[in-house]
């Protein structure tokens, strides 16, 4: 199998990208722009043997290969968004040929132009809230000592119940503060997308990720948004707030209601 497929990194306004001389994409392939009316798709050729559907299913299990593709993908997206507003596509969005690509652009032109307008002047900031095992270890009222004639083992049971209640109270406080954080930051943002919380196995840290949200924030408001998150962190020791970005608006490229898989066209 020696055919060529087309890897699509992003869609941008036709006035934004220009040329991509000396910019290498996935597998160091040359990056180019495919125009359609006021849109351009930013693409590079890839080998069919490596990126057709059966090959992708296998290679997506290869962490080293996946990381290499992700780095190249992000490098291209960062360059495109540096030049102007763009809608990043998901990793490994593949089209059979230029005809399939322009067919997609034609079918979704109105939607894509609206999405470009929505993210103009905006960036994505990620916020994760973590709760540690110590969240429930804050001191509480010490349970009363049992009577001298209490049944054997009752003191132990009371102590264990108190420890459990204290842990649960700490978790409740952390989750409630997380809700406050999310509500406050959502009010400051132009959009919000909730993602699945990440497991400790994925993050490599012992803390439990209880909230994983992307916010669409105006470029001029980044510092204000980050400062608000810092103040919210100062208001609570029950959880840890992590802010990442600014990123290209991956989470806001298409409205959830309009998103259609375009991996295989």
Automatic annotation (TrEMBL):
Its main location: other. Keywords: Gas vesicle. GO terms for cellular component: gas vesicle. One of its GO terms (biological process) is gas vesicle organization. It is found in: Gas vesicle. The keyword Repeat does not apply. InterPro entries: GvpL/GvpF. It comes from the Bacteria. Belongs to the gas vesicle GvpF/GvpL family. This is Gas vesicle synthesis protein GvpL/GvpF. The lineage of its organism: Bacteria, Bacillati, Actinomycetota, Actinomycetes, Pseudonocardiales.
